[in-house]
Prior knowledge:
By secondary structure, the protein is mainly β.
Amino acid sequence: MGDSLAPNLAVVGGRLAATWLEKSESGGESSGHRLRFSRRVEGEWLAPTTVAEGGDFFANWADIPALIEANDGSLLAHWLAKTGEDTYAYSVFLARSTDQGRTWQPLGRLNDDTTPTEHGFVSWVSEADAVRAFWLDGRAMVEGGPMSLRTTVVREEVLPSEVLDERVCDCCATAATLVDGEPVVVFRDRSQDEVRDIAIVRRDAGQWRPTAPVASDGWVIPGCPVNGPAIDGANGNLFAAWFTAADENPKVQFAVSRDGGASFTEPILIDSDNPLGRVDLVSIDEGEAIVSWLASGRDIARVMLRLVTPSGTVGPSLTVAETQNARASGFPRLERIDDHLYLIWVDTAEDRPSSLRVAEIPIAELSGGSSEAPAS
């Protein structure tokens, strides 16, 4: 996976799977990219397949492709591609596989408009016989409006979308999960006064509830920090993690909801030693959660894990790896299968191409506070 970027993890058929972008020569374009997919079987990564390829990809460090498995076993993947001359004129494109990723069929755009504006930061949940997408949508920007949050359902075709929030932060990732079969999505909101705190929209009894705060940090910032939240749930608990730098005090925080996202506990501190953020999290069966993030060092960043209980008890921090303190290090992504965690990140160095690394960590190590975890 040399000279790669934008890695992500998913669980496909109970096994670990990964997507990432690679540079390629597509149609004579030396600046082309391809979206790759692979599964891990019996401890080995299978030969990757190509989901899509082209010279029009909008490839970047923050807005990364993702993959979801529907309840019928089909797979859906997304990526970004340019749709206009402007730098940020791009849309979200989809492909579907019905043979566990061996072959892929294009489905066209996710966003149901053709404006030359930004569309991205997609998150997914499985929903009955379909999958549901949430994304940031810039179509209102054509007339000077703000970025919005939209959602739709995808089966073998994409259904019309609807607006969930008309004014959100421009380029912080969304994150979604299910609570008792109903979808919830967290994102960085944006007030008229440029307060950009983490918010939630949830569906209750088939109806979308208005945007509500996860926490009121009061972070006033005139531009997007490119640092979205994470969410997951288990055993009646809904967990959220996020980065804030309110009052010029960078920190990673965590909160728990015991009522499906209607309210959250006061924030629990994960890291206040000038972290970079870029969080992810997974829940585990005991009603606990594990947070991943990038901590900062003098010239490096450390890929970190930490366990948090619903009562707010925070375990020791586990250092998984070191990478550069740079945008190229991307966003580490976390998944859980049974009693093991899997973390993927971009290993960057000045003297060689970037590569992707995956660590397998027994969950038991998080309560023991080991100082390092092996990577492959």
